[in-house]
Amino acid sequence: MTTVNYSFDKLCVQEIEKQIETLSKLLKKLQDANEEFKAVTKAAAMKAIKKRMEKDIDEVGKIARLAKSKLEELDRENLANRQKPGCGKGSGVDRSRTATTIALKKRLKERMSDFQALRETIQQEYREVVERRAFTVTCNHADEETIDRWIETGNGEQIFQRAIQEQGRGQIFLDMAVLVEAQGDILDNIESQVSSAIDHVQSGATALQRAKKLQKNSRKWICIAILILLIIVIIIIVTVIKPWSKS
Fold first, then answer.
1. In a domain, 244, yes or no
2. What's the domain count of the chain?
3. Does some domain include residue 99?
């Protein structure tokens, strides 16, 4: 029975690792597509890249949710495994399983943070496009409140419409924003679990450091005691021999 559970856990871990690797590849594709988008000038090419990015963004959401579900499944398996003889909380087996789970959660959190950073990059670049188009049309610099309103509404403003036609990234920005918002609970949940696990690890590390420090102090006092003893022995020998009386 133990072998079956171990095999299942191993398979689950491999699936999560594969999903995180897929997220990394999708992130690279989106980053490359964003750079490609900035270089093209034809509307047809822009539309094709935009469609490709939207498809990848949808895929990111699906994979991230699936990875989160698998991690929750792994947590349940870890708790159930603690009921087995010799596998209780703090045992070698439990520490190994917990460490593996924490590592996977941290990797997923890092990937989702990378997607959020990309979303912020696209948002900033998109904002700059709107600002440039506004200045081109009006020869005046629009204030931040006006720019924010154009970005938020996305319609009814001639300047904003031209910016969308020129760059085509308005919907991509909105999709990325929705993605990050939808995955917010993943980030918060993983952050909480990782922090909790790190606290346990750090408390154990602190105890270990304290033990090492105590051991080091003990060795120091032993050395001092030996040194004092040697000095006493030398004094006794010198007193008995009295080399100065011979001279």
1. no
2. 1
3. yes
90 in any annotated domain: yes
3-state secondary structure of 231: helix
Write the single-letter amino acid at 169: R
Q: What share of the chain is helix, strand, coil (3-state, %, to 5)?
A: 90, 0, 10
DSSP-based three-state secondary structure for 135: helix
- Tens digit of each residue's pLDDT (9 = 90 or more) over 24-44: 999 999 899 888 877 776 767
Nearest to 68 by CA among 168, 189, 215, 204: 189
Please state the pTM of the whole predicted model: 0.59
Burial class (CB within 10 angstroms; exposed 0-12, middle 13-18, buried 19+) of 174: middle
- Per the structure, the complete domain to which residue 185 belongs is given by 2-238
Q: What is the pLDDT of residues 169-210, one digit of tens each?
A: 566 665 655 555 545 555 555 555 555 555 555 555 565 566
Residue 201 maps to which CATH number? 1.20.58.70
Q: Which H, E and C letters describe 54-117, residue by residue?
A: HHHHHHHHHHHHHHHHHHHHHHHHHHHHCCCCCCCCCCHHHHHHHHHHHHHHHHHHHHHHHHHH
* Distance between CA atoms of residues 221 and 233, nearest Å: 18
Helix (H) or strand (E) holding 226: helix 184-241
| Residue found under tokens 């007193």 | 239
Residue 17 amino acid letter: E
Amino acid, single-letter form, for residue 153: T
SS3 223: helix
Distance in angstroms (rounded) separating the CA atoms of residues 82 and 86: 8
Query: Quick check: is 246 in a domain?
Result: no
